[in-house]
Amino acid sequence: MAIAACHPAQKVQTNKDGWVSLFNGRDINDWIVKIHHHEVGDNFGNTFRVEDSMIKVRYDQYGAFNEQFGHLYYKTPFSYYHLVVEYRFTGEWRKDAPSYTLLNSGIMFHSQDPRTMPKEQDWPISVEFQLLGGLGDGNQRPTGNMCSPGTHIVYNGVLDTRHCINSTSKTYDGDQWVRAELIVLGDSLITHIINGDTVMRYSKPQIGGPVVNNYDPRIKKDGTILSSGFIALQSEGQPVDFRKVEIKDLTEEIKGKK
């Protein structure tokens, strides 16, 4: 794994069944903010905040949105794990954000270390578990999709260079809470689960392709297989709440089967 090679995957303290909350319900001191046009660590406009025991993504202290896409990264990388995030879309979308960001957020994983991102890099080199809300127009708009800023995956047995691939999930309208689960087995099988339904599987995430801009070329080594990386919650113009971010490290379980 090239992106986070100097920060090897670390375990977190677990409870008796192996699960741990990455969000303590009080603050984001264990997280790292990186927002486009700003240096790492600058939580511009208090974009990511903790209120009512939730991580809230808000833009009420912004002037123009100005493509200030942001990500909130947990402080250490992971490789083999089961992640659970509960989210809901809420509030008013920023009308000066790109149209595709309406009722849109995401969970980035196998991401580069945010401290390797220049100030003007827009998206992290990563794989995205994309979160979408229904537009209330009766059309299908699945959530739990795969998007690939600066990466590719192997889907249905072949290298797939599409930027986004839709899952088979249902459409979730309104501000209802949705449970998103991600099972990541290093550079092997990756599984997306929405409200208990498996909606997508793929494998072999690797660096490659466009969408990421103004990156450090020493980091983007196309063809590098990604077996670990950082996990991040996204801000891109739509207010969203996250009330649960829990992880179970599967490293020992996977090693025991080999």
TrEMBL record:
**This protein's superkingdom?**
Bacteria
The species this protein belongs to is Niastella vici
Q: Give one GO term, molecular function aspect.
A: hydrolase activity
Q: Taking every annotated instance into account, which residue ranges of this chain make up the domain 3-keto-alpha-glucoside-1,2-lyase/3-keto-2-hydroxy-glucal hydratase?
A: 18-248
Protein name, per record? 3-keto-alpha-glucoside-1,2-lyase/3-keto-2-hydroxy-glucal hydratase domain-containing protein
Known InterPro entries for this protein? Answer: AL/BT2_dom
